[in-house]
Amino acid sequence: MKIGFYPRLAAGSIRKNKRMFLPYILICTGMVMMFYIIIFLAASDAVSQLSGGSTIKEIFALGSWVIAIFAGIFLFYTNSFLIRRRKKEFGLYNILGMGKGNIGRILFWETLIIAFLSIAVGLLVGILFSKLAELGLVNMIHGDVSFDFSVSVLAIVRTAQVFGIIFVLLLLNSIRQVRFSSAISLLRSENTGEKPPKGNWFMGISGLLILGSAYYIAVTIQDPVVALVMFFVAVVMVIVGTYLIMIAGSVLFCRILQKKKSYYYKPSHFVSVSSMVYRMKRNGAGLASICILATMVLVMMASTASLYFGEEYAIKNRYPRDINLSLFMEDVSDLSDENVAAFQGDILAFLERYSVTPENDYCYRSASIAGHLDGNTVETDVTQLDEFDLSTYSDVYQFRFVPLSDYNEMAGTQEALSDGEALLYSNGKAYREDTISFNHGSTFRIKKCLDSFAVDGEAAAQVISSIYIVVPDLEQAIKGLDTLVDYNGNRMITMEWLYNFDIGIEPEQQTEVYYGIWDIIVGIAGGEDEHIGYSVRYREYERESFYSLYGALFYIGIILSIVFIIAAVLIIYYKQISEGYEDQARFEIMQKVGMTKREIRKSINSQLLTVFFLPLIFAAMHLAFAFPIISKLLLAFNLNNVMLFAVTTVICFIVFAVFYLIVYRITSNAYYNIVSGVREDM
After folding, report:
1. What are phi and psi of 502, to 5 degrees?
2. Residues near 582 by beta carbon (within 8 Å), at least 6 away in sequence
3. Which of 237, 245, 254 is nearest to 204 (CA)?
4. What are the tens digits of pLDDT across the range 205-246?
5. What number of other Cβ atoms are within 10 A of residue 155's Cβ?
6. Rounded to 5 degrees, what angle do the CA atoms 302, 307, 310 make?
7. How far apart are CA 167 and CA 112, in angstroms?
C-alpha cells in the first residue's frame, strides 16, 4: 500500500463530509483561541502591573480550567455526532475487506489533521487577537493602556498540551466505538431506532420533584451565607431535574399528542410527531443540554454585567464616604466622651491645615457581638452558637449597641429613652417583637423600630445581617456580655468608634489627606494605648480594586458566555443535521405519496416549534426562580441593587432570545434543505 494512502483517504473524508466537519473544526479552533487568550492574560506582565493584578490573574487562571474542562466534555459530545454519522461509512470499509486496524489508521490521520488545523489556526488567531483582548480588559478595569505586543510561550505550550490530550482521548474513544462494533451494526447504525426510556412516569415525576425542590431552595433562602452553599446544590438539582423532565417528559408529551386525534392526524403534525417519538430519548438529552447551556449563559451574563454596571453603587455601599475610619478598643471606658473628643479633635485639626471641612459626616460609638436570634431571645455564648447548623444560620446577627447621645447627634433627633428601653434598626429582615432579650445580658423593650440608620461599610459588607440597638447607656447595656470569651480566651464583644466623612476635594489631594489621617490614627493606636486597633479606608484608593475585580469577572463572563453560546449553537446545528439525514428517507416516501414541499415546510415548522423553544422556555423558568438566590449571592460583592439586577437580567434574556430565534431560522433551513431533497456536494 502506497505511503500517504491513509492521510489522503482521511483528508478526502474530511473534504467530502465538510458539512459535518467544518463546524467541528471551527469550534475546536475557537476553543483553542479562547484558551490561549485566557492563559495569555493570566500570564501577562501588563495585567500583573495593574491594580489588583494578582486577583485578575487568579480569576483568569480559574477561567482557563473551566474552559479546558468544558472543552473536553463538549468536544466528546460533538464528536459523538460525527462518529454516529460516519459509522455507516466505516461499516462499508469493513465489508470491503478493510480491517478495524486500517479504520483506526484513518481515524488517527483524521484526528491528526483536525488537531493540527485547530491548534495551529487557533493559536495563530489567538496570538493576533491577544493584544486586543488585553486592551479590552485594561479599558474595562480603567487601567493604563500599553501598546507593546508580546507572545506568551507559556500560553502556547499550555494550550498545545491541553488540547493535545483532548484530541488523543477523542481518538481513543472513536477507535473504541469502531473496535467493538460489528460490520453489520455499523452499516445499520443510522437506521437503529431508539426505544423510549422505561419508567417514563417515574423519571418525569422524579424530575419534577427534584426541579421543584431546587426552585423552593432558590426562592426561600434569605441568608447570603446559606445561599452561597446551597446555590451549588440547587444547580446540580436543576441540571438533573432538567434532564429527567426533558428525556422522560418529552416522551409523555409526544404520546399525549398522538392520542389527540384532532392534532395528530394532520399532514403537518403526523410526520413530525412520529419522527420525534422515534428518537425522543436522544432528542430530550440534546434539548436538556441546550437548556443548561442557555441558563448558564443567562445567569453568568446577568450577574457579571450587574456587578460591572453597578460597581459605583457597590463602592458607595462598601465605602459610604470619602474617608471611612474606625478605632477598636478593648474596654468600654476607652470610648469615653473625653477620648472620643480628643480623637476627633486631632483629625479636625489636621483637616484645617488643608482648609477642609468634613461633609456628610457621621460618627458614633458601638459595642458589637454576634448572636443567634430565636424569637426575641439572643444566644451569644460561643459554645452554644457552634451547635447551630446551616439551616439556622439565617438567624445569626451582628448586634451593635449604640449610645442614644451619639444617635441623636448623628440623626439630628431628640429621642428619649428610659432605663430598659431601646430603639432598634435591622438591615436584614424586619424585627417584629416588642422586646429583645440577651441570655447573658439585659432585656430591652423596643420603644420604636427605626426606618433608617447610618450603616457603616463593614456592616454592609458582612454576609450576616446587623441589628442596631440604640440604648440610653452603652456601659450599662453590655453588662454580662462584656465577659464572654471565645475558645482562645478573646473577648467576643468589640468596642468601636466609627467616623466617616466626605472631604470634597479632588482625588489627587484626597490621597495626601488620606495618608495624613492614616499617620494620625497610627499614632493614636501606637501611643500609650497599644491595644487600640484601627481601620482607615479611602474610597478613591479602594475604587481601583473594585474595578479590577468586577471588570475581570465581567470579562471572563463574556468569554465563557461566548464559549457556551457557540457550544449551544453547534449542538443545535448537529441536532438538526443528524435528524435531517435520519428523516430524509421518511420525507422522500411522503413526497412520493403526494406530500408537497409546502406541506413538508409546515411539518418541519411544527416539529421544530414543538421542541425547539422548550430549552428557551425552561431557561427562562430557571432564570426566574434563580433570581432570588443570585440576588443574595451578589450581596457578598456589596451589590444589593435588586432593580439593577432585574433590568440587566431582562435585557440579557431579550438579547439571547433574539439570537436564539436567528439560530432557529438558520438551522431550520438547513434541516429543510436535507429532508426536502435539496442536495449539496458532499
Report:
1. -95, 150
2. 190, 275, 278, 279
3. 245
4. 888 898 889 888 888 877 666 776 677 788 888 888 888 887
5. 24
6. 110
7. 8
Contact (CB, 8 A) for 295 and 634:
no
CA 53 to chain centroid, in Å, comes to 21
For the entire predicted model, the pTM comes to 0.73
The three three-digit cell numbers of residue 270, written as one number: 403526523
Chain position carrying cell 463574556: 558
In this structure, what DSSP letter does residue 251 have?
A: H
Cα gap 584→593, rounded to integer Å = 15
Beta-bridge partner residues of 536? 325
First to last CA, the chain: 26
HSE, CB side, 13 Å, CA atoms: give it for residue 427. Answer: 23
Pairing of the two strands 421-426 and 443-449 = parallel
479 within 8 A of 486, measured Cβ to Cβ: no
Query: Do 670 and 573 contact (CB within 8 A), yes or no?
Result: yes
**pLDDT tens figures, 543-602:** 877 888 888 888 888 888 888 888 888 777 777 777 667 666 666 666 666 666 676 666
Helix 280-309, helix 539-592: angle, nearest 10: 160
Q: Which amino acid is at 460?
A: A
Q: Please report where in the chains the cell 440623626 appears, as a residue.
A: 411
Q: Which DSSP state fits 50? A: S
Name the 3-class secondary structure at 54. helix
User: Could you give the C-alpha distances from 241 to 63, 227, 283, in angstroms and in order?
Assistant: 26, 20, 16
CA 436 to chain centre: 39
The mean per-residue pLDDT over the stretch 2-30 comes to 81
Helix (H, G, I), strand (E, B) or coil at 307: helix
